[in-house]
């Protein structure tokens, strides 16, 4: 059974990688060049949630994601999905709807904070079978892969475990839409599968931190 699961995971991962490289539905276009100095100023409306360590989303209850050092292209893609409603979140929809493309690029450049996190092959512990397919895009340890993807999928390593569980659950039940993740999430058949994947990636070391005004 395990070998069959790994085989399905590998096939799904290769399919996902191909989909990301070949479709604009995931990429949503090339972002314009962002100005991190302007982005820091524009981020002030986000600090009330994303700038506070362990700040919780009200309902359902989970930690808002760590954004400092996340890939800028992913931040832009996520904001566009909130703006379009592909990601259902009333507060984020309202916030993203007020942003222009340049605003998004500036904020994303500020959050990335220089060169993006580099992929690494170092893994802490053993990759669970449930997470095997994720490695094709996110890397075995959640730090990404060297393949040219636009935008790069998010860094998962070091992200809040309850946020990862929430994101995977909403992809699984179809509330959050993404041409790649809609299918990938269906490989996780149970809540326990989702929990295992979330806990694994959350446990991996990374540079992701809460985007406080003092963050470096």
Describe this structure as you would to a colleague.
The protein is mainly α. It has a single domain (2-202), classed as Cytochrome c-like domain (Cytochrome Bc1 Complex, Chain D, domain 2, Orthogonal Bundle), CATH 1.10.760. 47% of the residues lie in helices and 2% in strands. It has helices spanning 2-22, 24-27, 36-42, 47-50, 72-84, 90-97, 101-112, 135-138, 161-172, 181-184, 191-202; strands spanning 56-57, 62-63. Strands 1-2 form a two-stranded antiparallel ribbon. Helix 3 crosses helix 7 (101-112) and helix 5 crosses helix 6. The chain starts with a helix and ends in a 14-residue tail after the last helix. Mean pLDDT is 86; it is low at 1-30.
Keyword list:
216 residues; mainly alpha; Cytochrome Bc1 Complex, Chain D, domain 2; two-stranded antiparallel ribbon; 11 helices; 2 strands; disordered N terminus
- Class by alpha and beta content: mainly alpha
Low-pLDDT stretches: 1-30
Number of domains: 1
Total helices: the number is 11
Q: N-to-C SSE series?
A: HHHHEEHHHHHHH
Overall spatial form: globular
**Averaged pLDDT, please?**
86
- Proportion of strand residues: under 5%
CATH topology: Cytochrome Bc1 Complex, Chain D, domain 2
Number of strands: 2
State the strand order across the main sheet.
1-2
Distance between the termini: 46 Å
CATH class: Mainly Alpha
The helix fraction, in percent, is 40-55%
| Largest sheet composition | 2 strands, antiparallel
Q: Which architecture would the CATH scheme give at its second level?
A: Orthogonal Bundle
CATH H-level superfamily: Cytochrome c-like domain
Radius of gyration: 16 Å
